[in-house]
UniProtKB/TrEMBL annotation:
Extent of the signal sequence: 1-21
InterPro entries linked: DUF4440 (IPR027843), NTF2-like_dom_sf (IPR032710)
Name of the protein in question: DUF4440 domain-containing protein
Coiled-coil ranges from the UniProt annotation: none
Keywords: Signal
Domain of life from the UniProt record: Bacteria
Pfam families in alphabetical order: DUF4440 (PF14534)
Residue span(s) of domain DUF4440: 30-135
Length: 146
């Protein structure tokens, strides 16, 4: 009976540690997603560079592809200019050192001085490098009109 209680206690401790660890991992991922949102909104070159993986594939809903350097330059230069940037209906999945994040991106833009509105679906793929999540790939897609 004593052995069963010890085994049960150990199992509960391990399970609790795994759940706690996973929630810390997810919290770090969500923090990185918010840091990415802020960096895109502000065109913060340093923050964008820190979050994007060196081999980033950044796909726009219109089909054009940007690498890391082009992605950063587009936002930092104001070519792509977010006036507002909101993420809703967000879900995450984490598997070892890879994570996916799905959300709806709604924004007011001022690309090249031309005001606009955007509402697209986005899939982000992150990979963990050490303790940091890096944006490895992004695919945006058009949503049906409301």
């Amino acid at each position: 009976m004593f052995k069963q209680k010890v085994v049960l206690l150990l199992a509960m401790m391990v399970t609790g540690t795994l759940v706690h660890s996973q929630s810390l991992t997810e919290k770090k991922l969500l923090k990185t997603v918010d840091e990415l949102r802020q960096a895109m909104l502000n065109g913060n070159r340093k923050a964008l560079d820190a979050i994007a993986a060196d081999n980033l594939s950044y796909w726009h809903s219109g089909g054009n592809l940007e690498d890391k350097a082009t992605f950063i330059e587009s936002l930092a230069s104001g070519k792509s200019d977010f006036v507002t940037l909101d993420l809703t209906d967000q879900t995450t999945t984490i598997s070892n050192d890879v994570a996916t994040v799905h959300h709806i991106l709604t924004a007011k833009t001022n690309d090249g001085g031309k005001p606009g509105n955007v509402r697209i679906g986005v899939l982000l793929v992150f990979q963990k490098y050490g303790e940091d999540w890096k944006l490895f790939a992004r695919q945006a897609f058009k949503l049906p009109t409301q």
